[in-house]
Structure formats: structure tokens, C-alpha cells
Design brief:
Elements (H helix, E strand, L loop, with lengths): L2 H15 L2 H14 L3 H12 L1 H13 L11 H15 L4 H13 L1 H4 L5 H16 L5 H26 L10 H5 L1 H10 L3 H17 L6 H31 L2 H4 L5 H13 L1 H34 L3 H15 L4 H29 L9 H21 L5 H10 L10 H26 L1
Helix pairs in contact: 1-9, 1-12, 1-13, 1-16, 2-3, 2-13, 2-15, 3-11, 3-13, 4-12, 4-13, 4-18, 5-16, 5-18, 6-16, 8-16, 8-17, 9-16, 12-16, 15-16, 16-17, 18-19, 18-21, 19-21
Function: Component of the transport system for branched-chain amino acids.
Pfam families: Branch_AA_trans (PF05525)
Protein name: Branched-chain amino acid transport system carrier protein
Length: 437
């Protein structure tokens, strides 16, 4: 593969992950972290970039995204992928991207939600037009849209470096005590690890479309693509963090990262800044919707034999419909599912690294147990995040479950299961070797 093609796929991968939410998270966190913002961003990068990067590397080693769950019972395998891609697709992330694109890219100029329906139809039609030709994905996103997006972000960031609009505020209490830990938690809550599972379909298929058939070569190219993605995304997060850390003069009382970016853009460029931020948001959301539509259609074509074009049409139609129920309703209905699915996906990645993924076609009871444990404790974390646990239940969980307050109570139980499986495997091997001696 030519270096230019490889770079374009790396650029495409960066753009697939860079949704509006990824631009909004770091500014508020950095503002709250104050003088500790760089330390907090360091923790943030470990999970916000590290987990997706690790996921893509594991999928590259497996040579196919669906091999991640190949040894689960068929019903569980199909259920996992259906829920992941539906949640990341028309049930949550796709309509949220459309709604956020309207909220930040169009609403500031029209002043109401009256145009959301027309906008969603146009936006989804454009998504369909660009997603329906997967062979052209690198050309559209990697070679055209991503460079344009990087250029617009660079304009905003360079202006901030030349003319910062304030100094750092004192760190809030949580960032005074544990900036790295809170950065880690905020990075995990981007939930990009679950997105990496879906985007794995797109990235692997894109590399294979360039004539790469050898699995070892595929794994090598995935590594290089991930290096490009991780570098660009880390720089982007650092830049957004810098904007938040230096926003004290114009956005000291901001309640979210979007508000900080809006005020910063206006402070640097006046009315033109709003147009710049709108263009960045629209482009970031569009690249994400194209990628997720492609991932969904790719899965349904490979698994159920449904034509790519037909799947893409249904997905974008559903997205346009769901996006009109309102952002709050979308989040309320679908967020619990993605909060549960993310721990399962990460647990599968950890299990693949720790236990391997042999080519046996039999069902793996070990992997099934890991998924069940991750789902149970992930559900507990989801209820805690959504404020659905009673105070008594929370007190018991805080006392007995490690990392409960950090919203990763599933982590310790999953590792316990993995260690137990490794121990049993070692005992079995020694038992099998002993008679031979």
C-alpha cells in the first residue's frame, strides 16, 4: 500500500472518532482542572485514546471484528453485535450526532428547533450519499473532509496560542486531589472504546480493499493507522484542553464544553467565529455519521446477506426519524444500553489479550462468563451513573465493590474471572504433563 493511501486511512480513522462530543469533553475538564489541566489531560488521553487504540490493535490481530465474539454462543454473539451497532447507529449515536450538528451548527443562526426536521432529512441524505460507496470512503473522508477539518481546528487553536483569552483558574476540589484519576474517568466516559469495536469493521474492510489479503500484513497496517489516529486525536484533545484552560476571562461560568468553545471562537473572531465553529461541528458530525452508517451496513451485509445499499437506506431513514424526538429523549432511552455495552466490549478485548483467541469453533465458557460478569457489573455502573440506585445500595456498593465510585466496578470482577481461568488452565496443563513424566 502506498504511504499516501495509508496516511489517508489514518486521517479517516481520526475523523471517524472525532465527533462533536470529543470536542466538548476536554475544554470543560481542563477549565475545572485549572493549573493541573495538563496532568488531567494526561489521564484523559490514556483512556480516551488508549482504549480505542488498543481495541483497534486487537481487532487487527484477529484480522476481523466479528472474531472478537466468535466463541460466544451464537445467540449471545448476534445479540451483542446487534445491540452495539443499533445503539451506535439509529438508536442513539447517529441521531445524537444529527441533533448536535443542528444544535451547534444551525440553531445559533435560526434561533429555534423548527428547522430540525428539514435539516435531519438533508443531513441523513448526505450521509447516505457518501456512505453508500464504501470503496470511496477514504477519498471522501481521508483525503478531503479530514484535512479540511484539521485546517479549521488549526485556525482556532493557533488564534488561541497567539492570543489566549485568559489564564488558568484554581483547580476544583476533585482535580486538586486526583487530577490523573479524574482524567482517566472522563476519558473512559467518552465511550470511544465501544465505537472502536464498530469502526473496526470499516477500517479493516478499507485496508483489505487496497489489496491487503495477508493477515500479518493487515495487522501491521492497522498498527500504523492506529499510530496516526492516536497522534492526531491526542493533539486535538491537548488543543481543546488548552482552550478550556485559558478560557477564564470569557467563559469562567460556562456549564459545558460547547459553551466554552462558542465563547472562545466569538472572542477570537467575532461573528465569524460562530461560522467557524459551526463548520467544524457539522464536519465532525458528518464524518462520524458516515462511518457508523458504513459499519452498520457492513455488518448486516456480512452477517445476514442484506445488500449494503438497502441497509444503509434503512439506517439513515431511521436516524432521520429518531433525531426528531429530541436530544434529551434519545439520551434517556439509549444511554443505559451503551453504558452496559462498553464494559462488555472492553472486557472482551482484555480477555482476548490475556487468554488469546484460538481458532477452535466450540463455545468458550470462559469468554461467556466474562461477558456475563461484565454485563452484570456494567449494569450496576449504568444505574449509578443515571442516579437510579438508592442511597443504601450505593453505600453497600461503595464498601464492597472496588472502583464503584469511578464507574468501573466491572473491572475487578472481570480480572478475577480472567485470573481464575488462567489458573485453571495452568493446573490442567500440569496435570496433563505429569503422567507423561
Amino acid at each position: 500500500m502506498k504511504r499516501t493511501e495509508l496516511a489517508a486511512i489514518g486521517f479517516m480513522t481520526f475523523a471517524l472518532f472525532l465527533g462533536a462530543g470529543n470536542l466538548i469533553f476536554p475544554p470543560l475538564m481542563a477549565q475545572q482542572a485549572g493549573e493541573n489541566w495538563l496532568i488531567a489531560i494526561g489521564g484523559f488521553l490514556l483512556t480516551a485514546v488508549g482504549l480505542p487504540a488498543l481495541t483497534l490493535l486487537v481487532l487487527g490481530r484477529l484480522s476481523s471484528a466479528d472474531k472478537l465474539t466468535a466463541r460466544l454462543p451464537k445467540w449471545l454473539d448476534r445479540t451483542f453485535w446487534f445491540l452495539v451497532l443499533t445503539t451506535l447507529g439509529p438508536a442513539f449515536v447517529l441521531p445524537r450526532a444529527v441533533t448536535v450538528a443542528y444544535e451547534m451548527g444551525i440553531k445559533p443562526f435560526v434561533g429555534s428547533n423548527d428547522g430540525l426536521m428539514i435539516f435531519s432529512i438533508i443531513f441523513c441524505a448526505l450521509t447516505l450519499l457518501l456512505a453508500v460507496k464504501p470503496g470511496k470512503l477514504v477519498d471522501y473522508i481521508g483525503k478531503v473532509m479530514t484535512p479540511a477539518l484539521i485546517l479549521m481546528l488549526a485556525v482556532l487553536v493557533i488564534a488561541a496560542l497567539v492570543n489566549p483569552l485568559g489564564g488558568t483558574l484554581p483547580a476544583t476540589e476533585i482535580y486538586q486531589k486526583a487530577p490523573v484519576v479524574n482524567g482517566l474517568i472522563q476519558g473512559y466516559m467518552t465511550l470511544d472504546a465501544i465505537a472502536a469495536v464498530a469502526f473496526g469493521w470499516v477500517i479493516i474492510q478499507t485496508i483489505r480493499s487496497k489489496g491487503v489479503e495477508c493477515n500479518k500484513a493487515l495487522s501491521g497496517y492497522i498498527f500504523k493507522v492506529v499510530a496516526i489516529y492516536a497522534t492526531l486525536m491526542s493533539l486535538c484533545y491537548l488543543a481543546m484542553g488548552y482552550l478550556g484552560a485559558t478560557s477564564s476571562t470569557i467563559a469562567a461560568n460556562a456549564t459545558n464544553g460547547g459553551e466554552i468553545l462558542t465563547r472562545y471562537a466569538a472572542g477570537e473572531f467575532g461573528a465569524l467565529g460562530q461560522f467557524l465553529l459551526a463548520a467544524i461541528t457539522l464536519m465532525a458530525c458528518l464524518t462520524t455519521t458516515i462511518g457508523l452508517t458504513n459499519a452498520n451496513a457492513e455488518y448486516y451485509q456480512n452477517t445476514y446477506g442484506i445488500k449494503f445499499r438497502h441497509s444503509a437506506m434503512v439506517i439513515t431513514l431511521l436516524t432521520a426519524l429518531v433525531s426528531n424526538v429530541g436530544l434529551e429523549t434519545i439520551i434517556e432511552v439509549s444511554l443505559p444500553a451503551i453504558l452496559i455495552l462498553c464494559p462488555i466490549a472492553i472486557a472482551l478485548i482484555i480477555a482476548t489479550i490475556a487468554l488469546g483467541n484460538n481458532q477452535a469453533k466450540s463455545v468458550s465458557l470462559e469468554q461467556t462468563a466474562i461477558v456475563i460478569v461484565a454485563a452484570l457489573f456494567g449494569s450496576l455502573d449504568a444505574l449509578n451513573i443515571l442516579g437510579k440506585l438508592s442511597e443504601g445500595t450505593k453505600e453497600v456498593c461503595q464498601q464492597w465493590i472496588p472502583l464503584f465510585n469511578s464507574h468501573v466496578s466491572w473491572l475487578a470482577p472481570v480480572f478475577i474471572v480472567i485470573i481464575a481461568v488462567k489458573a485453571v488452565t495452568l493446573v490442567k496443563r500440569r496435570t496433563e504433563v505429569a503422567p507423561a513424566q
